[in-house]
Amino acid sequence: MLEVRLYVLQRLTAAIMAPMVIVHLATILYATRAELTAASILARVQSSPWLVVFYTAFVVMVAIHAPLGLRKILIEWGRLRMSAANMISLVLFVVFLGMGLRGVWALTGGAG
Amino acid sequence: MITRQRLTLSYMAFILHRLSGIGLVCFLPFHFLTLGLGLEGEAALDHMLAYTEQPLIKAGELILVILFSLHLLLGIRVLIIEWMPWPDRADGHYYGGLRAGWIFGGVAIALILGWIFIDGVMT
Q1: Interchain CB distance below 8 Å, B120 and A25
Q2: What percent of chain A has pLDDT over 70?
Q3: How much is the pTM?
Q4: How is chain A split into domains, by residue range?
Q5: Which domains does chain B have, with CATH numbers?
Q6: Taking residues A80-102, what's their average pLDDT?
Q7: Cβ separation of B117 and A42 shorter than 8 Å?
Q8: A35: which of A52, A107, B6, B58 is 20 to 30 A away, CA to CA?
Q9: Candidates B18, B31, B49; nearest CB to A37
């Protein structure tokens, strides 16, 4: 049952993230043609409160999606026991979530 | 009809999707750490941006853009195959599970986006 739930979660986060990734890719390609300085990045990210919501949601989704994908690989290719793979992906979820939210905070609320 | 050629293509898409995912996971902590430099002020971020101007780093970024695009497009293919209804073909052949066009199109688009990225960097 856990396996089914994690599979649905993996696909659900993928479906939610797909349009976000398109926006992120477009931003990357735009940024290479625009002035790329800390000030311009901070100004862009802080230009709308919706961008904070967008990047926060993006971080939450990727913090779920990436460890779940790695979990499958660790089990299928790494021959890891399921309990070990579960533990690693859980730790990665917490680490990615913490680091990602810190990054969003750094560019939005906490920029010095 | 399932042929060896179709299985190979499908497996290739599976491998590309996985390897691109592994590459992106490895990059993620560094990306988050870089964003976190904002806490130390604009100067720290600008210092990092200047560091990333090196050709080797730009080459790495190019690979990341390609991997990111590839993972997105091959991931959409997986979602389509698993969640969308299977098409009925008049000739009764089994076409639903491959989406070869997505694989070739995905690789092509990823490379084009990589080219657009590097073109933007060079100009």
Answers
A1: no
A2: 97
A3: 0.91
A4: 2-107
A5: 4-122 (1.20.1300.10)
A6: 97
A7: no
A8: A52
A9: B49
